[in-house]
Structure prediction request, 588 residues.
Amino acid sequence: MIVTHLSLRDFRNYAEAELELHGGTNLFIGRNGQGKTNLVESLVFLSTLSSHRVSGDQAMVRAGCEAAIVRTTFTHGDRELLAEVQINRSGTNRAQINRSAIRPRDLPWYVRTVLFAPEDLALVRGEPSGRRRFIDQLSMILAPRFSAVLADYERVLKQRNTLLKSLRGGLSAAQEQTLTIWDEKLISLGTEIIARRAVLVEQIRDPLRRAYAAVVDDDHEPTIDLSLSIDGYDVDADDTADRAANSAVPDSARIEAGFRAAMERRRRAERERGLTLVGPHRDDLLFGLNRLPVKGYASHGESWSFVLALKLATAELLRRDSDLGDPVLILDDVFAELDRQRRRRLAEAVTGFEQVLITAAVREDIPEELRAAPIFIRAGRVVDEDAVDV
Amino acid sequence: MYEGIVQDLIDEFSRLPGIGPKSAQRIAFHIVQTENLDVTRLAELLATVRENIKFCRICGNVSEQETCGICRDPRRDSTIICVVEESKDVAAIERTREFRGLYHVLGGAISPIDGIGPDDLSIQPLMQRLADASVTEVILATDPNLEGEATATYLTRLLTTLEIRVSRLASGLPVGGDLEYADEVTLGRAFEGRTTLR
Prediction:
């Protein structure tokens, strides 16, 4: 897909902005705090319904305003579409495709982006929750129904945890019996989530290997595996080094049996702590390079290479999945984080995509092959070059 | 924040279900400012409704007498009991005029988050009613959400020991709607529960 027009109203620091974009590289130059990230963030929101910078939507509505609107025209081959989302300060957001209302959560199906940002380093270095969010978000784009499964799982988890907590005080036999009902719901929904993640991990392996080779020009054997709490992985133990990698794609029947057995094993601990200790909410993705975990072992540069490869692999998966064309690649301030060689290799890897949006504070950070005619941003406005000192 | 009694009134309204702080404020000012509003009648109604409305001794539905109109009606089929969460569900099913059996109101659904377990629901009275051999079918009409499903599952397990037909309301496509606008979960359920025509 190619975004041809982007229009913002009361989004972040933009009162109003109209922007013409084109296929290939689009470069946004502006000093820090002027609003170039806000521009691309609006597209990220349109395609994921979340921001890479904040968890709440309210921050995206310009101060003093009730609602922000992001509207974009884009093409899928010969077809032109208009997508719009209204972010309300209070109340639910609203979305449209070609001026007819759709549910916001269906937007990712039409508008697809892959974001590269400085925050991505947390994917390999940070907490498991970030990695779970990464894989689940990708699952939701590929299979929209999955978002309902995740939401139901979260709800069942909350119910079960509350019940476990209250059981610590000792409750009636009837109350105890209801636990088995939540057990069953947790197992059936959780099995679906684990199975879905396992399939996705399997699908991303080859693209990851190819993308990593493209970024570093060497084979460091990048790997991605699931660490399952139902197989004994414990998030709290943080035993990254001797974690059992689980490469085979398990079938649902095996996952379900394993889930049930693990729940039985941890039953006493769960009752004591009043907490659900097994399930996909306590799983992790294990990233490896040269047979060692990336977290804790890889250098800063290697970690970046891995993250870039992971994002490129994601883009490759989305490109393969859709007959609507490539996802739009968004490179938000990443070149400043990379050394010269990685910059050049990344530039080579992204040029094959239909459209690439790049933001940078200074033009010199951008490899030459990507230095298209830039759009200059200052104080929430698109301005002429001479208004910006770069 | 407003002064004293006005704020008290707003706080009291916002404690009611479905009323947020803004609605509470609007209602409070409507009461304070509207000149020909009969506040006494409203206050009296609130007081009498608490005194006079009882819950049916048999089914738990709201009623002005010991037993509700449906339980008293001899034309109703006493061999079928439809189990619902709330009195308002009874009203909804009654509007269909399709069901001629009796009801049983649980008073909610199992939801640990809200502190509701089986003991907080009218389940014992239901079991006592079913001990009477004349009942042949129980229809579980709890809400089609996680909590309603959990309640239905719990009841199904309790009822397996009794020789009674247990059924659950079907979920699927809304009548008069468009297939293309149904969400994936509803559509998935509709596939699961499809009926054979031939």
About this structure: The domain at 1-112+322-390 of chain A is CATH 3.40.50.300 (Rossmann fold).
